[in-house]
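[Backbone geometry]
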Amino acid sequence: MDIVLVSSSPEEVHGLARPVAEKALSMLPAADIWMFVSPGGYASGREAKVASTYPGVRRAVSVREFLAFLAFGKRPSGFANSGSGIVIHLGGNLWCSVLLSRRLRYPLVVYTDRTILGAKTVSAFLVEDERIQASLIAKGVPAERVRLIGNLMVDGVRAGMDRDQARAYLGVANGERLVLLFPGTRVQEAAVMAPFLFRAVELLARVERDLKFVLCLSPFIGTASLDSIFSYSKHRGKIDGSSAILQKSAGPLEAVTAGGVHVRIETMKRYEAMMAADIAICTPGPICSELAFLGIPYVAAVPLNVPTAVPFPGVSPFLCSLPFVGELFRKRAVEQVEESGRFLSVPNARAEKLVAPEVVGHLRAEDVVIPCVELLGDTARRDRISRELREAMGVAGAAEMVVRTAIAANRGTLQAIEKGQ
C-alpha cells in the first residue's frame, strides 16, 4: 500500500506530515510512504530535503517534480505506484492533491482548516475542532464525511528527557530561568525575527537577573545561513533589532549579541528545550501548539515592520508582496482580527480567550519585553497559563485517526469505521 502525503510549508511538513509519517510507519510497516511537497507561498525551499530524513519516508518529492508529474505525467525518480494506496492532504494547494489523487486513482483524505475545493472527490475531511466541522457542513460537505480528530500538530511532540535532565543538558543553573526564542522557519522570516529577538533579550537582561537564553533553530533554516541572518544587515532601520556574532567553538553553538548577551543555539533537541523552559517568544504557528501541549507559557509576536517577511494568519503572501498595496492588505487583516476578536495562535483560539499573550503590529522590542517581564515575575500566573494551555490542546491521537481513516478509505470501509465496526 502506498501512503502519499502532500504538504507544503515548514509548519505543515513538520507539524502535520511528520507525525502522520511516523504513525503510518508504526501501523503499516510494509507501506511505501512518500511525501509530495505542494506549492505554497510560505515555503523555505528545504521542505523536500528535511522531509526525506523523517522516519518512514521513502523519499520526498520536490515541488518541481510534483508539478511535472501533474502536468506531464513524468514520474518522480523511484516512484512507482503499487495500484493500492491513499493520498493524504496535509497542507498546501488542495487542487494539487485532488489532481494527484485522480492521476494515481487513489482515494483522497484531507486534513483541513475549512478549505473544500474539489469536495466531491474527497473521501473524508478530517478537522481539528467543532468550529471547523460546523463550517464545512455549513458549506455543504455531507456530515458523514467530516470527522473530528483533534489537533494533529501535538502528535509529534516527544521529549527524550524530563525537565531536570533537559535543564542540565542546556546548562541551566539552579535559580536561573530559561527563555526560549523561536525566530521562525524560513531564512527571510528569521532575518527579521532573530535580530528583533536579540534586541528583546538585551532589554530583558537589563531588567531581569538570572536568565538564560536559548534560540531553537528550525531544520528548514540550517546553520549555513546564520552569519547572514544574525548580521542584522538586511532590515536595519525597518525592525528594532540587534546584531549577533556566531561563536564557532568546540562547545555548544552560541551567539553573542552586540550588547554582550550570550544566546545558546539549539539545533537538535527542540522538545527537550521546551521541557526545560520557563517562557518562550515565538511567532504564531504550530510552535504555539507544541509549547501549549507541554504547558509552556509563550508570547506570540507578529511584527509587521517588514510586511512580507513574517507570516500573518489568513493573509496571502502573494498579496503581501505586491508593491504599495501589500502593506494595506496586512493592515486591513490586522483590523479585521481586532474587530472580530479572533486570536492569532491556535491554543488561544481553542480556549476562546487570551491565555498566552499576543502582540501584533509595527512593534518595538519593548512590546515583547513587557509581557515577558510580567510572566517572569508572576509564578502563579505562569502556572495558571500552563494549566490552561494544556487543557486547550487536549490529548494526542490525531495522527492515528488520520492513518485509520486512510486505511478505511483505501479499503472502501469508511462507513464501517464511522459506525465503530
Summary: Confidence is low (pLDDT under 50) at residues 416-421. The two ends are 22 Å apart (CA to CA). The CA atoms of residues 304 and 415 lie 47 Å apart.
